[in-house]
Amino acid sequence: MDRSQLSTISSLGLFRPSDLEAAGIPRRRLYSLLSEGKVEKLSRGLYVASRHRLTEHHALAAVCRRVPRAVICLLSALRFHGLTTQAPASVWIAIPDKARIPRVEHQRLSICRFSPAALEEGVETHVLEGVPVRVTGAARTVVDCFRYRNKIGIDVAVEALKDYTRKRRSDAGELARLARARKASRIMQPYLDAIA
């Protein structure tokens, strides 16, 4: 295998066999790459170049490579944005209302169902380990924590709101806009008044 192909594989980050084909490398080449130690298998259908360094967001990248329509949300999005001290035991994802529940080998998932509009509004795309990862933005995540307070706990939502207002005071308008759009203003207002 020439250096350009190895460079291509390295640039893919986490990849599936179909990603190799899309990059112009025959799928059958994967088995020789595995035996040569140039590629490692992470889980069923998910591979990485041997020299690839895993990041703190590896679990998010792995889940989004396996479930491309997923949006990282709630506790996992809070952790991504640095708005919590919580360390979730599972990756929290949002999927379309009628999508089947995905299974990801070696990773626990906590699943929320969002409408098509909710899967787009306030969602950002970040590239982590070569994988496009869709994550609810910081303001959207705080609002969703109040909407899903029965799932994650009101204490987590309040902690996230305090961290957000302390770290991102200039984005208060975005928080208010998303609270209105997601119909969470009434729920959030007493907490906003208390910390103002």
TL;DR of this structure?
With 196 residues, this protein is of the alpha+beta class. The chain is 45% helix and 18% strand.
Total count of helical runs of at least 4 residues: 10
End-to-end Cα distance, whole Å, is: 61 Å
Question: Which regions have little confidence, pLDDT < 50, spanning 5+ residues?
Answer: none
Which whole number gives the mean pLDDT?
91
Quaternary assembly = single chain
Give the helix proportion (percent range). Answer: 40-55%
| DSSP summary, beta strand count | 7
Summarize the main sheet.
Answer: 3 strands, mixed
Which structural class do you get from the secondary structure elements?
alpha+beta
Strand line-up across the major sheet: 3-4-5
Question: Which descriptors apply to this entry?
Answer:
196 residues; alpha+beta; two-stranded antiparallel ribbon; elongated
Q: If you had to describe this structure to a student in words, what would you say it looks like?
A:
There is one protein chain. By secondary structure, this protein is α+β, with helices and mostly antiparallel strands. It is built from ten helices and seven strands. β6 and β7 form a beta hairpin. About 35% of the residues are buried.
What topology emerges from the helices and strands here?
Layout: H1 3-12, H2 17-22, H3 29-35, E1 39-43, E2 46-49, H4 58-66, E3 71-72, H5 74-81, E4 91-96, E5 109-114, E6 123-128, E7 131-136, H6 138-147, H7 149-152, H8 154-167, H9 172-181, H10 185-195
Helix pairs in contact: 5-6, 6-8, 6-9
